[in-house]
Give the backbone structure.
Amino acid sequence: MSPAWWIVVLNWNGRDDTLRCLAALGELRGEPVGIVCVDNGSTDGSVAAVREAFPAVHVVETGANLGFAGGNNAGITHALEQGAEWVVLLNNDATLEAGAIDAFRAAARRHPEAGVLAGKLFFDEPPDRIWFAGQPYYPAIGYAGRPYGYRKRDAPRYRRPREVGRAVGALMAVPRDVVEQVGVMDDALFLYVEDVEWCLRVRSAGRPVWLVPDAVARHRVSASSGGEHGSLHAKYYGVRNTIVVCERHRPLPAPLAWLRRRFILATFVAQAWLWAADRAGARRAVRDGWRDARAGRLGPRPG
């Protein structure tokens, strides 16, 4: 009999991270889970290494880089075909703690109305600092603010289950009936903000997003794309997809839409100036994302 819970781990040329992630899944407590590793056209020997080290893991090869959305969608589809009732997305640069799936299971029983269960993530280094403990999202202005508890030590207020605005794709669980109701992530967004858009769709369908603070992972943040502030991809896809998602989910009259676009642009320009190691490259990435959002160009970044 197929497990009711399946974990999807997406890999793109991240062999060592993925092997570390899958090894940690062998320590999970509770009922068995299914595991599917999706490979997005890697060239670093990832597929052979996963098959050799973890023969019980289902491997899905997409044959090309479909981005975070497309790759995870392939894993979600495979898991549902195997009979999954819940699918957990887990970044390959995250290490899941042993009781995390049991915590998700308990939350699913307590909140049968939930459309998404959001996990809680700590930085891998320093390990006592929170990266994500829930987050609001305001599509009217295109702003989310820092995740709750960001870079703070854990405290009672971050250990309480609560409704939140969004989950992050690094650790989130979605039930079968929600996928059947609202669909999977938007492939066209490719990378970044696709998890936000999915949560907005789920919430629009009347299904809340619940933080499950006992479902914990340690996250090497954006390891595959250059680190939390070093990723030029994050700048490009961030500004492009934020504009697209906000206009899709909260359309405004033309003058206000123009102001929102300018606000989003200014936010990413400021981030590029303050934090990017390659400021010139970051500014170009923001500019390109801005232009492609205005032109309606989605999918992978050109070039």
Strands lie at 5-11, 34-39, 58-61, 86-91, 94-96, 116-123, 130-132, 162-164, 171-175, 209-219. The two ends are 46 Å apart (CA to CA). The first strand starts at residue 5 and ends at 11.
